[in-house]
Amino acid sequence: QVQLVESGGGLVQAGGSLRLSCAASGRTFSNYVMGWFRQAPGKEREFVGAMSGSGSSTYYADSVKGRFTSSRDNVKNTAYLQMNSLKPEDTAVYYCAAGPLTSWTVANYLYWGQGTQVTVSS
User: Fold this and answer.
1) Residue 33 contacts residue 101 (beta carbons within 8 Å)
2) DSSP at 76
3) pLDDT in tens, the chain (122 residues)
4) Which end of the chain is more exposed for a tag (fewer CB within 10 A), N or C?
5) Pair type for strands 116-121 and 10-13
């Protein structure tokens, strides 16, 4: 089992930045791919980005590429999502997730954080 606890969401103006954190406990953190997803009201949960266990490989949705950066600290068992140049359409609940394989599919992730709200005002 892996427990994930997110923090760092909030309200920010368009063009601003936020950094989300995802603290993990349980099994060896570095064994897991970490994914980031988001879900806006009335929409399905969508892929934002993913990162290999070592952090050396990262993948992003086209909608956030160049603006969002994922990283991880395997000593602190924490993953991060740095979000810059935020837009109102980035407003959603953001989730971190852990799984065995790099994937943009929700079903391929085994463990999920509780979610944190990000609201971007225009």
Assistant:
1) yes
2) T
3) 899 999 999 999 999 999 999 999 987 899 999 999 999 999 999 999 999 999 999 999 999 999 999 999 999 999 999 999 999 999 999 999 999 999 999 999 999 999 999 999 99
4) N
5) parallel
